[in-house]
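Key result, reporting period 2: structure in, sequence out.
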């Protein structure tokens, strides 16, 4: 495998990891919003700023 191929694979892995983190944050925010609308907040759905970083 060439250095260019390795670099492309590493960049792809980094992008997928960032996308996964964004999806987790979005999912948590959506659950929190649904709970807020229903008037039933659940602590396990609360994401702290530290967890998001």
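The corresponding designed sequence is given below.
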């Amino acid at each position: 495998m060439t250095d260019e191929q390795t670099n492309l694979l590493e960049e792809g892995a980094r992008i997928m990891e960032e996308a996964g983190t964004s999806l987790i944050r979005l999912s948590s925010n959506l659950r929190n919003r649904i709970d807020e609308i229903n008037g039933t907040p659940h602590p396990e759905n609360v994401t702290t700023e530290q967890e998001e970083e």
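The chain has a mean pLDDT of 86. Helices lie at 3-38, 49-52. This case is discussed further under Risks and Mitigation.
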